[in-house]
Amino acid sequence: MLWLGRAFGFREAPKHSDVLSRLWWRCCYHHARKWYPGDCVCGCIADHRTGSEWRFESRERYTEVCPDARTPLRVFSRQHGYCTVEHALKREQVGAVASVTRLEVPLPSGLQRNRERTGVLSPGKRFRREVSSSSSSSSSSSSLPPQSTVASAGPASAHSASAPSTSAWWTAPGPTYYDGRHTHADEVLLGTVLDSDRSGLRNTVRAFAHEYIAPYAAAIDEANRFPREQLWTELGNLGVLGVATANAYGGLGLGLVEHCLVMEELSRASPSIGLSYGAHSNLCMMQIERHGSAAQKERLLPPLCSGVWVGALAMSETGAGSDVLGSMRTSAYQRKRTTAAGELRSGWSIRGTKMWITNGPDADVVVVYARTPELESHSASTSTLAAVESASSSSLPKQSKPKLTAFVLETAQLGPRYRVAQKLDKLGMRGSNTCELVFDDVWVPDDAVLGEPGLGTTVLMAGLDAERLVLSAGPLGIMQACLDVVLPYVRERQQFGSPIGTFPLMQAKLADMYGALAASRAHTFGVAASVDKLTRQIGEPTPPASSKHGGLNPQLRRFRKDCASVILQNAERATQCALQAIQALGGNGYISDYPTGRLLRDAKLYEIGAGTSEIRRILIGRELYEASHATK
Fold first, then answer.
1. Which of 169, 373, 479, 546 has the fewest CB atoms within 10 Å, counting from its CB?
2. For the chain, domain boundaries
3. Does the annotation count 467 as an active-site position?
4. For 443-453, what is each residue's pLDDT tens digit?
5. CA 552, CA 549: separation in Å to the nearest integer?
6. Catalytic residue among 317, 467, 607, 623
């Protein structure tokens, strides 16, 4: 495992956790899969650190076996047929590794004919499923990685996928401009925030997105379908769904820098997949880990990390706009209920609707915010609401400020009074399903409360800065995707006998796009690294909601304006980069044959969702004013 990991960017094996070791295996496995198709997975890789090894017994699964059962690693390269790992890696100029026993096996006839006809397959089609009459190519084989036995923790879900779907919209990959290569901006970050481990993580996600997501981005957008069966469990197997979740719950226990790295690479391949990932891993899982009880974490986080379940956050409502707190109408009332066993249990009855809920139609776990009028009191202390960021909520009379309570709900247990209403037909981010959720007096037990009753505002506010920071990596991926399209185009497109990339005005356009991306990337990862560093120093980033700080860590408060500034600038720059990309392609940029129009539609969401640009400017200005006043 060590030599294979080194060949793909890792400098040394993980030393401090079994979960990171699992990520190491997943990274090695997904990189190794570059050399053989889904129906030719066999052999093993030795783990020289622990003395164990992983054997790829079939295309469905891989299991850990004893060292004495060691067999050579059989590798299939689309370019060179079956050969050693050393030979394949050297030919691809990835790097040399220790020699492996050569295993000569005839090339399957269907794949041999394909190689003779087309030579090297184009990027984005290397993992295309082979439909061949040859007995060596099975039509039921999957091009996706096998499901990890490690990541299968958690209860089964009605939505869980045991095998990739054969839907027509998914089985025909389209052209992709995502080449999966390193970018110039990587060199800028190298040595600052990108150490060897982070570079390895980024390379792994980049390779996965290149092969499994980018070829289907246009199909996802056109069909407006969330590829849960085809993709979500595989992201869980890769380990990225729980990248910032503690090791004890099946996550990797990493920080915001790693979270942003994953978000950027997924968004580069498909912004809609990146958005669904952010809503799942950040908006839902991070809230549960920070404020959930031990029982809630043990029950909910493992299946969310593994991709068995999908998570969502339900806060926005129809007509509320930016006045989320002041205009919230969904309410929860304390009610007792007699169970089937005759036991009288106390709980809450939730009534209302939520709108604009990302991942709503697919969600198995939803974090819901509701007003609790029974807890509101005209004389109640407003200390926990002192940091509320919505400008409109501060205009409410103090005696009428709402008391919110956060709930974490398993949708399968809510019964018929909970339903998914209209699925929204959006301009962009199609494939990241968004809908309206209806709660018609849905009863939930007391243990569904996230945090403490009446302190939902602090639960919400404590996660907003991290939400802005992680989501700001989405526009980074869109800007890089724009360059992925434009740079090859300006080399190939000829005008007046020369490539248009040689024209000064076109080079100026490229300079503007790259400058915006480089500045945004440096700003994003600089803030993320600073927050991670301070979090490690202070230990617990989020005090209990009942503490004197009301769930808002005063030391992290100074990064609030930076997190808002990052997403403000990144969102607006991404929209401008997409417009520049369309202009660079001319008429081709205006048709759907190229992804520039889709990237523009996707980029615009980040100027509206998770707080509009106007609200972000108000927040930044207020934070700067209050900080300057406090220093006098």
1. 373
2. 1-121, 311-460, 462-630
3. yes
4. 999 999 999 99
5. 5
6. 467
